[in-house]
Amino acid sequence: MSTATASNSPSKWVVLPHYAFAALAFVALSILLLFSTDAFSGHYFHPKLLTLTHVAALGWATMLIFGAIYQLLPVVLECKLYSDKLATIAFGFLGVGAIVLAWCFWHFELGWLMHLAACSLVISFILFNINVIQTARLAPKWTIESDFIVTSAIWLLVTGIVGLIMVLNFTMAFLPVEHTHYLKLHAHIGMAGWFLLLIIGVGAKLIPMFLLAHAESTKKLNWSYNLINAGLVFFIFDHLFFHTSLVPVYAGLVVAGVVLFLLFIYDTSKTRQRHDVDLGMKQTFVALGLLLLPLVLVFIVSSRVALPQQLLSAVYLVYGISVFLGFISAIILGQTFKTLPFIIWMHAYEDYVGRFKTPLPKDLYNHTLQRLQNYSYLVGYALLITGVLLRNQQLILAGAIGFTITSLLYTANVFQLLLHKVQELKPFTYGSTSV
Amino acid sequence: MNITATTKIAALIKENPAAIDAIASINRHFEKLRNPVLRKLLASRVTIADAARIGGCDVETFYQKLRPLGFVAGAMVTVNQTKENTMLPPETILTTMPTYLVQLPASAILTLDVREAIATGNDPFLKIMNAVEEIGEGNALLIINTFEPTPLISILKKKGYLFYTDVKNTDLVYTYFWLAGEQDAQDDEGRATKSNTFEEVLARFAGKVRRLDVRAMEMPQPMVTILGELEILPENEALYVLHKRVPQFLFPQLAERGFNIAINEAGPSEVFLLIYR
Fold this sequence. Notes:
Shape of chain A: globular
Strand order of the largest sheet of chain B: 3-4-6-5
Structural class of chain A: mainly alpha
Number of helices of chain A: 13
Number of helices of chain B: 14
Distance between the termini of chain B: 32 Å
Strand content of chain B: 15-25%
Order of helices and strands of chain B: EHHHHHEHHEHHEHEEHHEHEHEE
Oligomer: heterodimer
Helix content of chain A: over 70%
Order of helices and strands of chain A: HHHHHHHHHHHHH
Strand content of chain A: under 5%
Number of strands of chain B: 10
């Protein structure tokens, strides 16, 4: 790599391990799902469900986002990543933390091992924050997308710290209110603060770019940022100190913020110059559509509507699934194939461009597998949701099989990319060098 | 695999890693290829011809060592074809220090010692390029290194810098770079553009500009198209590119290939680039 070092791009050894780990975690998640069909009939505080959630949130989503951010941050901020080394260390702590935490939840071992896992994760989040914030300080250019990304990193650390406190509380029981009270806090800071803000920040930059569109104004994004953060902060204070019945209002602020983001995407997409939409972008639009389900459900979850207990439990479960296995997983399944091929291509071919006939990023992976992956995902997701609502274990199992197929197709494609070897290149006839 | 004098060392190693040992056995100059850090740094920037110069041997010696590994050394046809395009024509090797350097006071020589950076595996390319920006009227840049920085010399030569290499001993090489003086008006003109605005550069290339619109292209097609066009751009012409954004990934490739760029950010998604030598 002669010039990757001279550009703002981090080393591929920083970025690519995240993609490899995330793909394998997605396979692990699907297999665990196969063995958890019995867990969806009751309350969400269930060892298997806690395992699934944390494998999805940490091993799969957060891991992939870390890798993508290290690649993307220098592009958004137009400066070099503060430290490759910190990124690698954060990867180690996140990987170990996610695996150990998953093991602890599955076996419901709440002792010192879980403390260790939680500490490892918080260390990883601190290192990630240092890296993101120090990089942002070097940035010559500041945009609203940067606000989203930096703020989301801080919320991730808050989520981790709340999680650590809850883990300590398992053995020491020092918190004044029951455990699920803090679980709601932990979950919502993670979902809205970390995942939602981050995906909006990154999406607002990437989606217009891939559509070859441009934003006329970032006003809607500014308001989206303000509304989501305001809703979240109000929710946290209310939840901790006041316990009013205004929670649906705070949820409304967050939902309004998301709607503004979707409108922003809609506005920019009207200026697009690219009208054929590839599989990666199709899947991304599917993900944005799937985002509507949790936006509706959040009002049921946050207001104290009188639903039969059984139905309410199922709604809670569907709410969680619609965030992690719905929106977040769907957008990763799409965006992986818009980012990873380019990263691999860049590292393999940048020195040869113009001098040799190089393949293109889209030539480096299998589109048939990707199409099947998109279908099996949608089918699996629909079956799983239906199965949970109807409390039908066969349907849940069918959904889990759909996810397993999806994860295997995805992983096959990701590893085909990761293991790509530079092909023998043919020089152009006018070439000034002839290798 | 067919090889010629312009084949990159990295390509040899990629084809057959045994090439490392074969080349290292030529003489002790190439022992550094065994060091993975130096290898990563140099192999992709150095051609066989460059390496022969660094090691003080001829290209044929390389062919002899590489033939047993299954490499086919340059047929006559390719030699003819590449002759005019060779990146590095044989340098005029000066044995005495040029008068320009002799008359410079010590304080006018900016010194950059890259030995430690290279030993610790940090690519000093960016640092050097920043230091090069400091070169102006009446000063010079001194790079202290363990070998002759052939790839750097070829890049800076294209940008109109003069150089002088002083081999102190086998592990210590002083390389000086400075700007061409009055006698070389064309190079001087080339350098002067550095501080010029987009409009001035555009005016200078009036009538000699090729236009390229990459706004409707998906990544990485803009980069592929631009670099492809630059390969066939005549020496004294410029490429005018209409782009949607400032192309971050293009800059290092332009620097590596000895091109300058002037940027005009007309709007949030309207950027004009002027690329020239």
